[in-house]
């Protein structure tokens, strides 16, 4: 068995059998190995290559050896895609290690010795086969980034609450059913990724994570959120799509910094009135719920496809920060006169509703660039339509249109106009003028 005096020696010896070691940076102790064509640390002293399916690191040979002073100075180690099934016991001797990547291997367990890496800042074990974590993971007191996505974890050790410097915890795509309440001790946590697990509830003290900015909980089994979550006043983004949520906390409006809220494909029938107090909210995704009306105080951006929405309140015009609006597949028959006050709107989707007319104020949407009105009951458009001079795409297909206003010819930036299956018997003069200016006209009778 070969014993090397340092990891630098390991790198030199591995060149003889073409092991793909490489430096990951200019730092003296930053090394990477992938695909493992030699049985590293076991018999790499021989120049004979062995098949790439070598599945573990041998013991000794510079990783455990008593003279492995180079290893003890190493700060970065990447062992991605190395077919590893286990790690050597000597892992804990890499006392200066700050970054460790073990992603895309076949690890089912991590050794207790992992907890000895007292300087570790960044640990990535994504895309393995982990079924548990060692209790000693709570000893990694310097850890800031912990990535464990795409594994087979069902529970987390309570000791994870000792990682008081942790800023990012990524557990996306595991099978976790509950979180230990000790998780709420991670007071510096800013990003919590728990999407695509089996969570049925959240810790009641979740609100203690006062610096949390991103909370990803999509594709779980959550029916409600703890009331304490309204204390997460630094939250910028909340992702809750595809959960059987029946309601949101009544004090949701306390999340004053919130910019994006995703609650699509849930079971919401109403929104809390306080949601109108989210003055920074620019994107709200509610597609696939059972909402019928919006709160009077509503003042945010919106994606609300397929909800059976029948009307919009006059207060809807207060959404003056909204840039994109998706209201496809609802039952809207008209839009409020205040609709033209959506002065920041750039993209509007109203496909497959029951609209019979548009308000004259529609022409005040001066920044509108993309508009879909296909599959409604429109017979004409307001004369003010010609003021939408920033419009680039306009779809009016599958409406019983009988007339287009001449002002339509003023849409000098229009690139595409869709008029398939309307009641028009010929292409109107305004459309011919647009065509002459280079607009692509899609009309079934052309």
Sequence-ordered SSE layout with sheet pairings:
Elements: H1 7-15, E1 22-23, E2 30-32, H2 69-73, E3 76-78, E4 99-101, E5 122-124, E6 145-147, E7 168-170, E8 191-193, E9 214-216, E10 237-239, E11 260-262, E12 283-285, E13 302-303, E14 324-326, E15 347-349, E16 370-372, E17 393-395, E18 416-418, H3 429-436, E19 440-442
Parallel strand pairs: 2-3, 3-4, 4-5, 5-6, 6-7, 7-8, 8-9, 9-10, 10-11, 11-12, 13-14, 14-15, 15-16, 16-17, 17-18, 18-19
Antiparallel strand pairs: 1-2
Characteristic terms for this protein:
mainly beta; Leucine-rich repeat, LRR (right-handed beta-alpha superhelix); 7-stranded parallel β-sheet; 3 helices; elongated; disordered N terminus
Describe the model:
With 446 residues, this protein is mainly beta. Among the domains are: 107-244, Leucine-rich repeat, LRR (right-handed beta-alpha superhelix) (Alpha-Beta Horseshoe), CATH 3.80.10; 337-446, Leucine-rich repeat, LRR (right-handed beta-alpha superhelix) (Alpha-Beta Horseshoe). It is built from three helices and 19 strands. It has helices at residues 7-15, 69-73, 429-436; strands at residues 22-23, 30-32, 76-78, 99-101, 122-124, 145-147, 168-170, 191-193, 214-216, 237-239, 260-262, 283-285, 302-303, 324-326, 347-349, 370-372, 393-395, 416-418, 440-442. The strands form two sheets. Strands 1-2-3-4-5-6-7-8-9-10-11-12 form a twelve-stranded mixed beta sheet, with no helix packed on it. It has a seven-stranded parallel beta sheet with strand order 13-14-15-16-17-18-19, with helices on one face. Strand 1 and strand 2 (30-32) form a beta hairpin. It is elongated and about 80 Å long. Mean pLDDT is 82; it is low at 1-24 and 26-68.
